[in-house]
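Standup notes
- DV: blocked on the single-chain target, sequence here:
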Amino acid sequence: MSYPSLALCIPAYNAAKYLPRLLESAMSQQIPFDEIWVYDDCSTDETGQVAAKYGAKVVRGDINRGCSYGKNALAEKTSCEWIHFHDADDLLMPNFTTIAHQWMERLDAPDTVLFAFEYRDGETNTLYSIGKFDDEALQRDPIAYTILHQINPFCGLYRRVKFLEVEGYDLDPNVLYNEDVAFHVRAARRGMTFRAEPTVSIINYQYSNSMSQANLSKCITAHICVLEKAALESHSQYHQLIAEKLWTAAGVAGSYLAWDVADKAANLAVKLGGRKGAANNSYWFRTFALINPPLALRVRELLIRFLRPQLRQESKYQPNRKN
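- DV (later): unblocked, structure below
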């Protein structure tokens, strides 16, 4: 009896320090991976050599192109039916492949399974939270769910043929720093089906020097670009939902004083959702935002900094999940 095959695909750049931990966790699985691939994104350390030492198949890029390109390249290289992407500095629990095979072997297997995970501090191992996805909401409307929620690829198990059919990750440089949201929104819009697994089998580590932590303003700029693309390519029934996310993004951009970005998000939000798009905000803000969105954002930010300055001071130290 044959079983569905599963590949572990790891995009990596200067990851020699972390790869042994991840690869050892991969080799400690109760059911072995059929293939383990590492995309060495033109590292300047020994990433490729470390991966090869552990028996992984290594693809080395000739120039640094980023993790989205690496994921697409590995999906093309593997011959396995299913793929799981994992960040080099994260970890797999021993039960991951066992749970994955339970899904892969189902007659009604979806195209994507999102796994629960622990979210921990990379230096102290402190547990911040447990991340889980809403299975009912994913089945009911995956497009809305992927617009509303951040989904990282280390959570996902993907049917390879479907991943390739939706053209994998968007390589548009404007969505860099929010490419995971861009991919999952597009995958849902193009018909990939989603389910959620509640059993924790992954550990996601947060590091103070991670790409997202070091580029918070760029992350929100990219997110607004992703939402703009979603608005252009999605049915109008999702426009109000996108408008609500844009208002939130505009507020975040304003907190970084990135007013050009904030204004772009606010103006698009008004165009898509009118006053209803700002439904999660106060009455005065909703009213003012319809008259002059940029000024409404600036007045609100000024009031926050004057009346509740601790919100801006504390925000600098809040952990943010990697993109």
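- Follow-up: The mean pLDDT is 91.
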